[in-house]
Design a protein that fits this description.
- The chain has helices at about 1-20, 35-40, and strands spanning about 50-55, 55-60, 70-75, 80-85, 90-95, 100-110, 110-120.
- By secondary structure, it is of the alpha+beta class.
- The protein has one domain (about 1-20, about 50-120): Sandwich (Immunoglobulin-like).
- The strands form 2 sheets. A 4-stranded antiparallel β-sheet has the order 4-3-6-7.
- The longest helix has 19 residues, at about 1-20.
- Residues about 15-30 have low confidence and may be disordered.
Length: about 120
């Protein structure tokens, strides 16, 4: 499970980086059906927001899902720092006193990355 979460986090980081820096040959202004199909994908965590305050990450806008969603916290080097289950009733994760670094917090549901956040300590 830990390896799967690390792989999902790394893949999400790559997807985010590619979305922010498209390749030179990428023509995102073309009107093909592939782009239209991708925009119709549903992400139930789209409206989820995160706030980090006093060593606790709190999520708002969590949807009701049939199986548990997980939060995975990794540091800038990709090391898993913490994992926790979340849902609308248990919407906070204690992160304690982390050393100064850039961290990635990824919500994973059904073995797919659904939303990622970054925060700096």
């Amino acid at each position: 499970m830990k390896k799967l979460i690390i792989v999902c986090s790394m893949l999400l980081s790559t997807v985010i980086a590619n979305a922010q820096n498209p390749a030179a040959g990428d023509h995102s202004n073309n009107n093909d059906n592939a782009g239209a199909a991708m925009s119709k994908a549903v992400n139930e965590f789209e409206k989820t927001q995160m706030e980090v305050k006093d060593g606790v990450a709190t999520f708002t806008g969590l949807p009701q899902v049939k199986s548990s969603a997980y939060v995975v916290i990794t540091n800038a080097a990709g090391d898993v720092i913490k994992q926790a289950k979340i849902n609308p009733e248990k919407n906070a994760v204690k992160i304690g006193k982390l050393p100064q670094d850039l961290y990635f917090m990824t919500i994973i549901h059904n073995s797919k990355s659904r939303k990622a956040f970054t925060f700096k300590v």
